[in-house]
């Protein structure tokens, strides 16, 4: 027999202002993850996360406060791709800047600002909308889940620059100009970039010769067409550098085939199938494919640049290069957040996402929480950032000089 909701006004629909909606949303989200999150390395706090979330949800003042509650509920998952979305929290815009958070210092690396608001690369950002950067970053530490500390730092860098369309006040300090204040207009986020990216400068050339005989391929931006058109030049290259410091928009699917002489197996993608509650009976549907050699065969003098922004499919591809010794791996550890993303729509317009696919390496070890570590570490210092140096690229160029 149908139940009539006589205590709801005509036209009512679930919304974040409504206490019952918030409670139901927290319960549904927690249960979806309890049954279908594909990894076992969850913090002990997960069992208590629902109770804590319900206590907070019951008294949240508005829909955006409840977003914070759900974000904190996700923290014990240690999932670098877990996130909460809701229309009350505007995320469609990004400051047109790239910056690095290191030792509580936020250093600007690149920007695309009007001349009257130009900020020199290497400037240190001290305040964002009159709030100290360290204070805002510390708040995000409690709400941004990640599998590794450096993966969380990369996500915080991203969170610090996204939001709504309103101008953002930045207070920066640089050796050239001292302390200055800038009012920065956000730009609409590029829909071709992955969710975890806000703004990235599109390179003039995604495939370019950076030294006679040595080519750099920016795999965040390079398309299959661009890669195919460059094959004649790449065939004659003495060295190739792949830049995977980000999530590829459209990774050239046949690239790996040009680096091998024998067939290899792709990373294994495992989808969990739960047949009993609380993950008491779970099996995985596994899929993989064979990567065949392709002509022309490119040089084996190859380096691949990685860092904590290497996530998702980018991390899967970097792992393939590392597992089969197809490249020197240069830079900093990846995020430990590989795999496709699942999303669930919830009452009140909320949406929760998480890593829904278990990606495993040659030894059957899940990439989740197990970052790819560089064979040749090269992370920047604060001085390197302030001087505008790309120490990972410098290291790769140095390696490719060696016979």
Description:
The chain is of the alpha+beta class. It has helices spanning 19-36, 46-57, 63-74, 133-141, 149-159, 224-229, 231-235, 312-323, 382-386, 391-401, and strands at 83-85, 93-94, 97-102, 105-111, 124-128, 131-132, 162-163, 168-174, 178-184, 187-188, 207-211, 214-218, 239-243, 264-265, 268-274, 282-287, 290-291, 302-306, 328-331, 341-346, 350-355, 357-360, 376-377. Helix 1 (19-36) packs parallel to helix 3 and helix 2 packs antiparallel against helix 3 (63-74). The longest helix is centred in the first third of the chain and has 18 residues, at 19-36. The chain is globular, with a radius of gyration of 23 Å. It starts with 18 loop residues before the first helix and ends with a helix.
Count of helical regions: 10
How many strand units?
A: 23
Q: How does the overall form come out from the CA principal axes?
A: globular
Poorly predicted ranges (pLDDT <50, ≥5 residues)? none
Beta-strand content estimate: 25-35%
**Which range best describes the helical content: under 10%, 10-25%, 25-40%, 40-55%, 55-70% or over 70%?**
25-40%
Structural class: alpha+beta
Described by strand count, sense and barrel closure, the largest sheet is: 6 strands, antiparallel
Q: Determine the oligomeric state from the structure.
A: single chain
Radius of gyration: 23 Å
Q: How far from one another are the termini?
A: 79 Å
């Amino acid at each position: 027999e149908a139940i009539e909701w006589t205590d709801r006004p005509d036209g009512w629909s679930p919304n974040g202002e409504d206490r019952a909606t918030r409670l139901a949303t927290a319960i549904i989200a927690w249960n979806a993850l309890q049954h279908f999150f594909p990894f076992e390395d969850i913090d002990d706090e997960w069992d208590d996360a629902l109770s804590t979330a319900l206590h907070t949800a019951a008294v949240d003042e508005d829909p955006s406060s409840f977003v914070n509650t759900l974000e904190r509920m996700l923290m014990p998952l240690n999932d670098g791709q877990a996130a909460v979305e809701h229309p009350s929290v505007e995320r469609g815009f990004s400051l047109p800047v790239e910056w690095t958070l290191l030792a509580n210092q936020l250093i600007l690396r690149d920007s695309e600002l009007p001349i009257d608001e130009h900020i020199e690369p290497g400037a240190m950002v001290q305040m964002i909308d009159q709030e100290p950067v360290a204070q805002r970053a510390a708040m995000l530490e409690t709400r941004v889940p990640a599998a590794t500390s450096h993966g969380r730092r990369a996500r915080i860098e991203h969170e610090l620059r996204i939001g709504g369309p309103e101008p953002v006040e930045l207070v920066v300090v640089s050796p050239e100009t001292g302390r200055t204040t800038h009012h920065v207009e956000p730009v609409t986020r590029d829909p071709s970039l992955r969710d975890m990216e806000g703004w990235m400068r599109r390179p003039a050339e995604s495939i370019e010769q950076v030294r006679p005989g040595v080519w750099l391929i920016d795999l965040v931006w390079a398309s299959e067409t661009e890669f195919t058109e460059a094959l004649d030049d790449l065939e004659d290259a003495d060295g190739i550098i792949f830049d995977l410091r980000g999530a590829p928009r459209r990774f050239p699917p046949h690239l790996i085939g040009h680096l091998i002489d024998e067939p290899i197996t792709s990373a294994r993608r495992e989808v969990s199938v739960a047949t009993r509650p609380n993950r008491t009976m779970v099996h995985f549907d596994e899929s993989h494919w064979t990567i065949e050699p392709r002509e022309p065969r490119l040089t084996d003098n190859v380096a691949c640049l990685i860092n904590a922004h290497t996530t998702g499919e980018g991390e899967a591809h970097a792992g393939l290069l590392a597992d089969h010794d197809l490249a020197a791996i240069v830079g900093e550890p990846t995020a430990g957040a590989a795999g496709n993303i699942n999303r669930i729509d919830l009452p009140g317009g909320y949406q929760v996402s998480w890593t829904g696919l278990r990606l495993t390496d040659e030894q059957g070890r899940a990439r989740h929480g197990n970052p790819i570590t560089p064979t040749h570490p090269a992370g920047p210092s604060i001085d390197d950032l302030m001087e505008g140096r790309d120490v990972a690229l410098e290291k790769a160029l140095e390696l490719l000089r060696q016979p």
